Amino acid sequence: MAKNKKDNSDFMSKCSFCGGEFGAQEMTVLEEKEQKTTLHATCRECKTSALFFISNGQAGLLSLGVATDLDKEEVKNKFSRFAVTADEVIDAHQLVSQGDVAKLFQ
Ligand SMILES: [Zn+2]
Q1: Ion ligand 1 — residues with CB under 5 Å?
Q2: Using one digit for the tens of pLDDT, what is the confidence trace for 43-55?
């Protein structure tokens, strides 16, 4: 599974809902650490907001996008008590696949 190292911004340049592009201006970095980055982005076209969890660990680059109703200020507030670890990203992924995204922010 040899893949080129890609810029983190590359994978999520398109909105999963309408295919519109996320511009750099629409992205807010909530947390940036050596092996994980969390961003909030809003689509220019449909105004869908999404959280992106990017984890760069032993398994390689893992990215997860979660649609959210929260704007970036609300996300910042929530995020201060929602510290994401690699394990929690996996938990988040499980919640997403179960359709329980809302639990992330309870
Ligand atoms: Zn969109």
Answers
A1: 15, 17-18, 20, 43, 45-46, 48
A2: 888 888 888 888 8
0.85 surpassed by pTM: no
Strand partners for 42: 49
Residue 77 DSSP SS3: helix
Ligand 1 centre from 43 Cα, in Å?
5
In a domain, 86, yes or no: yes
Q: Give the span between the Cα atoms of 49 and 31, in whole angstroms.
A: 17
CA of 58 to the centre of ligand 1 (A): 31
The answer to whether residue 26 sits within a structural domain is no
